[in-house]
Structures are given as structure tokens and as C-alpha cells.
Amino acid sequence: MIDILLFAFFWLIATLLGEWGVHAMEARGLYYSAATSQALDGEKAVAFILTMLVPVIAFVVVMLIYTAIRFRSRKSLQFRDNKVFIGIWVLFSIALNILFFVHPSASALEQMFNNEEARLNRHDLIVNVTARQWEWIFSYPQYGIQTAEDSNGNSTLYLPVNQNVRFVLRSYDPYHTYDPNGAVIHDFWIPAFGLKQDIIPGETRLEYVHTNKITSYDVDPMVRVQCAEVCGPGHPFMEAPVHVVSSSDFMKWVQAQRKLEAS
Amino acid sequence: MSANAAGLSGVDTANRQRRRIAPPVIRGLLWAAIGFLVFNTLVSQVIDRQPYDPFVTRVSATVGWAAAVIGWLLGVGAWEVIVRPFFGHPVEWDIPNDWRRYFMFSTDHKVVGLQYIFTTTGSFLLAGLAAMMMRMELMNAKLWVFTNPGAYLTTVGIHGTVMMFSVGTVALVGGFANYFIPLMMGSNSSAYPRMSGLSHWLLPAGIATVFLSPLLGQWTTGWRAYAPLSGQDPSGIVFYYLGVFAMTTSSLLVAINLTATIIFNRAPGLTWNRLPMFGWGILAVSLLTIIWVPEIQMTFIISLLNLIVPFSLFEQTGSPLTYMESFWLFGHPEVYIIVVPAFALWQEIIPVMGQKTLFARQWGVLGLVFVMLFSGLVWAHHMFTNMRNSEMLPFSFFTEMISIPTGFSYLVVLGTLWGARLKFSTPTLFVLMSMFNFLIGGITGVLLADPVINLQTHDTFFVLSHFHYTVIGSMVFTWLAAAYYWLPKLSGRMYNETLGKLGAIWVFIAFNSAFGQMFFVGLRGMNRWVAVYPQYLQNMNFSISMFAFLLGLGFLFNFVHITWMWNKGKPVGQNPWNGKTLEWFGTPKPGIATFSPLPHVETGFYDYSENTPPTPSPPKRM
């Protein structure tokens, strides 16, 4: 009996410490940097799962340490069954997993699917993203911008803040269209945006985000487009800076881009 | 004696001793070289001669390789043991009773097990060296060890492939199970001893093929070999497909052999209800292998044909997703092929070390079997970033649910630990550490099973760390636990307890420091397969590399310690841990029949209450 009480005490302490740790991490930002509502949803899901799992982790870890220290070279206690303990364990693990499936898995996924509903996305900013080995090409069909580039000719992505953005993702090489089998799988990832999408040759895939914070690659290196699926030796170099700016700055940038393309 | 058990008795020894052949491994290498040269030349210069083609083409390398592997297998002994007897000749194969038996075809399951253990350890060290090179490159955000990112990616691919197919899949199954499953079943031989002898020699052929792949050119895909990238690289990927074919065939033969051994070679009285936990684990894992390995072999054969014929099955005009799906259909069960024997070993070692009756044994068996059944239902969680939305929920569901049967292994071990008389030895320590590491791997697995979180962490160092926690953290730690636990049986000698504990603590601290940080570097935006990365990640990567080197040295320390004690350790008796499974009651020496007469099992192996009779009761004559 004393063992059970002692164990419960240590378990409680470890759980409290663990919860404190998780919440400290949550306060600092589990994703380090979150610039879209999708990233915030992801962070919330991580925080929820970890908060619920801390007692479970604490139970196993304290049990491993406690038994290793306490149950040494005494007379052993022989038993092969404990219906109550097994019953609680089995039912609890089933309940916990069903909980996680309902929330956050299914609930957050529903949120994500809703973001992709056509009826909710009538005023999206559309960005056509073309991935080739090894370059990102961004074009803005609504603004007549063919290839968004900075003055050095490097691809760059500008987005207005508080705006739904629809990325239209394709993988092919617009400069070598004679080779239909030249494309490989890429992955469109902006670390601060909290999600990524593979780009499969021959398929057009969509990704929706809602920007919620003015930020840029200049202040936060996580605000960059990074290819996340290995695509050959040039894979690490396949990145592009991202700027999330106010809508007036965005319009200024659009004007500048048009002038740049006209010249 | 073991040769007799396997039906390989020679007729007249005197006659056979006059026959002299080159050392089998040398002869195998020679025959392999001849096979490659002849068939490569035939294909590239005669049958399929194209203007401007080099001497070695993709097609000729494939055909030449097949001839080389056949030459190698015949040379190490398949010619005398399998081919000639098939045509009615007597078996003329002398197995000297010394170190040389490990360098030739053998039908003794203990010799085969040790061959697997040596080969696996060697490939672990070589592929580990590749990992050290990768970590050295990643100490700096710029290229500085490798001259180009393709060379780095080729190293990544070799590391992953060899660790997967020659260490993860093989170490506990081909190695320890080949040695100990027949012993635990109370049998003097595995069910198909000749096939077993053949299976080991495919492994070094496969390892060598993968390590030699840079001879044909770089391949930048990593061990997953995703099309269409695999078709764009230079031809190194050809040797990836071929090497993996040899290694997986080796695993497949082991699985067939061990399944048959467990089903048919059990000693009298060893009923299914009394089957040891390791037996259940190996049975589950062997069935998984038999189901899924042929699937990946077909996928790779089709990919190879896609490359050398060539077709365009998996390119833009074909279906790139089909390859990924075929790959992960095997790729996830593979994870459980690696980790299920580890679960089983926890449940094997802890009752012995605790001298405590195994808790809730039926739940442990259920757990192993259900993990095996579920493992084919979760694979598409590797593809949340590229599948249809509607497919995410069912795979997310099953992935979360698989943690329930996995948890049963913890239920059993924790219940057994409670109130035990625990001997705090090195194997105990390694098992407890392994359980901690798998807990971290499992918790991060629950996070990854959630699609929204997965879309952020997929293809980052978060995932990398997660699966290294499950593979190194649990399987390799359990491998070391098993090595220390069974060392007295393998060598008749005991390791040094202080050095053993030092080794355990060393690798535990280094492992958790290195891979624990990788979760965070992944969340901060470190993606996989990059030799060059943004500057802001350099400090963390430098620190990870330091602990990774420490981990490499820690593994080396454990191997040196085990090898040293294998030869120089303090001799111990038959059963130093007071275990009850049958392997503790047989003769430990290779080359000698273990049980004579066969034991008769009268109770289960995990009952430590005081009034139980010792298992097995003194062997009775049948």
C-alpha cells in the first residue's frame, strides 16, 4: 500500500512539472514562429495532445524509475493478474485514443477542409506556384505578374496580411517543356505557415492559408519557401524569401513588379 | 554433430579430407568476379551492344550482378551443400571445428545466428560511419566535408538502406532469433537448415552491393527511392534496388525458416500456451515479413525495369503516387518488423531479471499480434502531404489506435516490474532505457498521426528524430540488452557489470541529447536531405553533431566491451540469470547438438512462485 501511495505522490509531482514545462513551451510558441491561422491551429493541436499525454508520460517514466529503485532484492510479490489495473489501462488507452481522433485530429481536419471550401474562398489571392529543379516560380494571375522577382532576379513571394491565399501548385519545367518526364516531386513548405503540400508531377494541387501577421524573411528566417521533399542535389538551394506585408504595401509592390516586368 | 542433425553426414571422412578447396569466402569472391565479368561482357559487348555505350551499362550491371551473387553463393558452399546433392551426389562439405566455420556455408543454426550477428554488427558500424560523416557535414551550414550535395545524399541513402535492411530488420531476427529460437523451442536444428545457411550469405552480398553503388553513380533519393527522381540520377540506384533485393531475400528466407521452426520444431509439451514471448514476437514478425517483403521486392523489380528497359510508369505521364503508395504499403509494416522483436524481448528479459511471474501474459501476446495485424492499416500516414483529403481520416484513426496494442507491452512489463526482486544488471538497464526511448518515439508518433500537425512536421528533422527514437532508441538498445543478456550463453563468459552500466548510461545520454534536440531543430525549420541549410540553424546542429559523435563512440565502446568479454570475461555457469526458458538448459557450443535427449516441457516458463517445479523438469527420454 505504501508503494502505491509513494508512487502516486511522485506521479503527481512529475505530472505537475510536466504540465508546467508544456505550458512554458506553449507560451514561447511550440512552432517557434506562426504567421497563419493554420499554424496557430497546429500549435493548439500539439498543445492539447501534449497536455493530455503528460500524465501518461509521467506514469510510465515514474513507474520505470520507481520500480527500478524500489523493488530490488527484497522478497518478491508473485502475481500474474490484476483485473482492475488491466481493465483501467485498456479502457483508458482506448478512450484517450478516441478522444485524440475526435479532437484534435478530426476537428482540426474539418477546419482545414472548410478552409478549402470553394464557397468560402471567393476573394482569395491566387498565387500560381511552379516548382522546377531547382527554383520556385511565383505568378499572380489576378495582377498580371508572370514571375515575381526581386531586382536581382531571384524569386520572391509577397503576400498581403489578413488575406486568404490560394496556392496553385504544379511541378514542371516551363523552360524545357519538350521533356514531359523531366519533373520530380517537390514540396511547398513555408515553416512559419505551419503546413506543407507535396507537388506531384502531372497533378495540380492546392494549399490554402490565411495570413495573420506582418513578417518577412528579413526578420524571421522561418518565413521562407523551402522545398521539403528531396528533389536532387539542388534540393537545399530550392528556397525563396517570403514577405507578408500590409495591403497598401502589397499594392505598392504589385505596381513595382509590373514596372519591372514591363521594362 | 550439428551437421548430422541437419542431415549432412559424410560417408567416408578419410576420402573427404583429401579434397582441398580454396577458403570458401575467397572462392566465392572469385566466382562472383568471374560471373560478373562473363555476364556483363556478354550483355554489354555481345547481346545488347550499342554504339558509344560504356563497358558497364545499367542492363549489363543488372545481369552481371545476378551472376555474381549466384557465383558468390555457390562459392561459399551452396555448390557442395545444395546443388550437387540435388543431383544425387553425396554431400562433401567439411566444417572444421574452429573459427573457419563462420566463413563458410553452415547448416548449424547457432553458426548461422553468429554469422548474422557478426555481419549485422559490421554493417551497423559501417553505416554508422556514414552517419558520422553526415553529422560532420551538418556541423557547418555550408558544404565542407562533401564536395557536392549529391555525394551527401548518396551517403544518406547508403546509411538508411543498410541500417534498415541489414540492421533493423535483421539484428534481432536473423541474428539472435536464428541462434535462440530453435533453443527456446527445445530443438537441435531450425526447420530448413540448408535454406538458413544460404540466407545468411545473401546479406553480405547485399551490403556490399549498396556500399559499392557509388561506382555506378550518385543516387540522391535516400532509402525511399522515390520516382521520378530515381530515374533522373546517375545509375547508382540500380545497385540500391539489387542490394536491397539480396538483403530482403535474406530476411524472407529467415522468416520462412523461423516460422516453420516455431510451428513444427517445438519440443514435446511446448504447447502454444507455453510458447515463450520471444517466440510469439518472432512468429508475428516473420508473418509480417512473409506478407510484406514480397510486395516491396516486386515494387523494386518493377522500378528497376522501369529504369533499365526503360518504361515511364512512375513519371509525370505515368503515376508518381503509385510508387509512393507501393513503397509505404511495405514501409510501415517494416517499422513493426523492426520493433516487435524488441517488445517481445522486454517481456522476455524483465521476468528473468525480476525473478517475477510475467504479468498479464495473454495481453502481451494480444499486443504483439494486434500490432502485427494493424501495421498494414496505417501506412498512408506517411503520405498526408500528398494524398486525397478523404483518405486522411481513416489512416489517422488506425495510426492512433495502434498505440493501444503497443501499450500492452508496457502494461505487461510494468506489471511484472511491480513488486519484483529486480536484479539491476546491464540488460535490465538497457531494457528500461529502451522503454523510455520508445515512449518518446510513441508520443511523437501520436503527434505525427494528427494530420494537421503532420503537415508541419512531415519531412523535417522532427520526423527524422521520431523514427530514430523507435529504431535506435528501442530496437538498438534492446539489441544491446539482448547481447549482454545472452552473452553468457553465447560465450560461456560474463561481461563486466561496471563497464556494461557505463556503456548503457553513455549511449543513453548521448542518444537522448542528440535526437532530443532534433525534434526542436525540426520544428524550427530544419528540413531533411540537406547538406546546406540556413545559417540560423547552425548552433543547434553543431550541438547535435557533438552528441552524435559521442553516441558513435558509445556504441563502439559497447561493442569493444562485448567482444573483449566474449574472449576474456569471467567464465560462468549454464544459467547465471536463473532463467526458465529452454535456451538456458542446453549446451552452448556451436557445432554440438544442444539437447540430447530432447527436453520435455511441463509448465510455462514465466512462473516464479515458490511452489512451481523448475521448467523443464529433468529431461526425460522420449
UniProtKB/TrEMBL annotation, chain A:
<comment type="similarity">
    <text>Belongs to the cytochrome c oxidase subunit 2 family.</text>
</comment>
<dbReference type="GO" id="GO:0042773">
    <property type="term" value="P:ATP synthesis coupled electron transport"/>
</dbReference>
<keyword id="KW-0472">Membrane</keyword>
<dbReference type="InterPro" id="IPR002429">
    <property type="entry name" value="CcO_II-like_C"/>
</dbReference>
<feature type="transmembrane region" description="Helical">
    <location>
        <begin position="83"/>
        <end position="102"/>
    </location>
</feature>
<comment type="function">
    <text>Subunits I and II form the functional core of the enzyme complex. Electrons originating in cytochrome c are transferred via heme a and Cu(A) to the binuclear center formed by heme a3 and Cu(B).</text>
</comment>
<dbReference type="GO" id="GO:0005507">
    <property type="term" value="F:copper ion binding"/>
</dbReference>
<keyword id="KW-1133">Transmembrane helix</keyword>
<feature type="domain" description="Cytochrome oxidase subunit II copper A binding">
    <location>
        <begin position="122"/>
        <end position="256"/>
    </location>
</feature>
<feature type="transmembrane region" description="Helical">
    <location>
        <begin position="48"/>
        <end position="71"/>
    </location>
</feature>
<keyword id="KW-0186">Copper</keyword>
<dbReference type="InterPro" id="IPR045187">
    <property type="entry name" value="CcO_II"/>
</dbReference>
<dbReference type="InterPro" id="IPR036257">
    <property type="entry name" value="Cyt_c_oxidase_su2_TM_sf"/>
</dbReference>
<dbReference type="GO" id="GO:0016020">
    <property type="term" value="C:membrane"/>
</dbReference>
<keyword id="KW-0813">Transport</keyword>
<keyword id="KW-1278">Translocase</keyword>
<dbReference type="InterPro" id="IPR008972">
    <property type="entry name" value="Cupredoxin"/>
</dbReference>
<keyword id="KW-0812">Transmembrane</keyword>
<keyword id="KW-0479">Metal-binding</keyword>
<dbReference type="GO" id="GO:0004129">
    <property type="term" value="F:cytochrome-c oxidase activity"/>
</dbReference>
<protein>
    <recommendedName>
        <fullName>cytochrome-c oxidase</fullName>
        <ecNumber>7.1.1.9</ecNumber>
    </recommendedName>
</protein>
<dbReference type="Pfam" id="PF00116">
    <property type="entry name" value="COX2"/>
</dbReference>
TrEMBL record, chain B:
<feature type="transmembrane region" description="Helical">
    <location>
        <begin position="540"/>
        <end position="560"/>
    </location>
</feature>
<dbReference type="GO" id="GO:0004129">
    <property type="term" value="F:cytochrome-c oxidase activity"/>
</dbReference>
<dbReference type="GO" id="GO:0009060">
    <property type="term" value="P:aerobic respiration"/>
</dbReference>
<feature type="transmembrane region" description="Helical">
    <location>
        <begin position="358"/>
        <end position="380"/>
    </location>
</feature>
<comment type="similarity">
    <text>Belongs to the heme-copper respiratory oxidase family.</text>
</comment>
<feature type="transmembrane region" description="Helical">
    <location>
        <begin position="469"/>
        <end position="487"/>
    </location>
</feature>
<keyword id="KW-0679">Respiratory chain</keyword>
<protein>
    <submittedName>
        <fullName>Cytochrome C oxidase subunit I</fullName>
    </submittedName>
</protein>
<feature type="transmembrane region" description="Helical">
    <location>
        <begin position="277"/>
        <end position="307"/>
    </location>
</feature>
<feature type="transmembrane region" description="Helical">
    <location>
        <begin position="499"/>
        <end position="520"/>
    </location>
</feature>
<feature type="transmembrane region" description="Helical">
    <location>
        <begin position="63"/>
        <end position="83"/>
    </location>
</feature>
<feature type="transmembrane region" description="Helical">
    <location>
        <begin position="327"/>
        <end position="346"/>
    </location>
</feature>
<feature type="transmembrane region" description="Helical">
    <location>
        <begin position="111"/>
        <end position="136"/>
    </location>
</feature>
<feature type="transmembrane region" description="Helical">
    <location>
        <begin position="429"/>
        <end position="449"/>
    </location>
</feature>
<dbReference type="InterPro" id="IPR036927">
    <property type="entry name" value="Cyt_c_oxase-like_su1_sf"/>
</dbReference>
<dbReference type="Pfam" id="PF00115">
    <property type="entry name" value="COX1"/>
</dbReference>
<dbReference type="GO" id="GO:0020037">
    <property type="term" value="F:heme binding"/>
</dbReference>
<keyword id="KW-0813">Transport</keyword>
<keyword id="KW-0249">Electron transport</keyword>
<comment type="function">
    <text>Cytochrome c oxidase is the component of the respiratory chain that catalyzes the reduction of oxygen to water. Subunits 1-3 form the functional core of the enzyme complex. CO I is the catalytic subunit of the enzyme. Electrons originating in cytochrome c are transferred via the copper A center of subunit 2 and heme A of subunit 1 to the bimetallic center formed by heme A3 and copper B.</text>
</comment>
<dbReference type="InterPro" id="IPR023615">
    <property type="entry name" value="Cyt_c_Oxase_su1_BS"/>
</dbReference>
<dbReference type="InterPro" id="IPR023616">
    <property type="entry name" value="Cyt_c_oxase-like_su1_dom"/>
</dbReference>
